[in-house]
Amino acid sequence: MFGRKEDDKDPIEEVLEATEEIKVEEPELKNSPEEESAFAQLARLTADFQNYKKRVEKDRTLWMDRSCMDVLLPLLAVVDNFDRALQDAQKNENQETFKDWIKGFEMIRKALYDFLAQQKVTIIEQVQTFDPLIHEAIMQVESDDHESEQVVQVLQAGYMYKDKVLRTAKVSVAK
């Protein structure tokens, strides 16, 4: 057909045969020392950046906790005043005029303690043995009922904020 002799090969077959003869060499995957150094440097920078992000997040959390503690600490004086007022009022409870007043104070006190609980502020529970991390010894007293270094009386409650001491408990300790 069209001037083709029977001895002539089909052009498509010629291309296929030529491609079979070509050997494709795969490139070597080894990197040069400069590339290895660049990869190592990139890995170090990535690790440094991850550590930086973790450190910044930790610092931010600590800063926020410290800010909350700075706000909550003065509020504890208000709580103490309410507690003292209620204790004094309960001494005069037999007077009819104070009953509504006492109920109002109890409601305010409850609201304050609920607020503190929402902010993760808890009262330091009574610990029998003096611990300088959570107690502040205001005085030492003679006591036959207590051993040396035992807490005799809590004079002012201590508070914790998220497992950190917000305010130490003021206590009297047995000699």
Set out the fold topology.
Layout: H1 11-21, H2 33-91, H3 98-118, E1 121-123, E2 135-141, E3 151-156, E4 159-161, E5 164-167, E6 169-174
Parallel strand pairs: 2-6
Antiparallel strand pairs: 1-4, 3-6, 4-5
Helix pairs in contact: 2-3
How would you portray this structure in words?
- With 175 residues, the chain is α+β, with helices and mostly antiparallel strands.
- The chain has helices spanning 11-21, 33-91, 98-118; strands spanning 121-123, 135-141, 151-156, 159-161, 164-167, 169-174.
- A hairpin with a 2-residue loop joins strand 4 (159-161) and strand 5 (164-167).
- The longest helix is centred in the middle third of the chain and has 59 residues, at 33-91.
- The N and C termini lie far apart (123 Å).
- The model has no long low-confidence stretch (mean pLDDT 81).
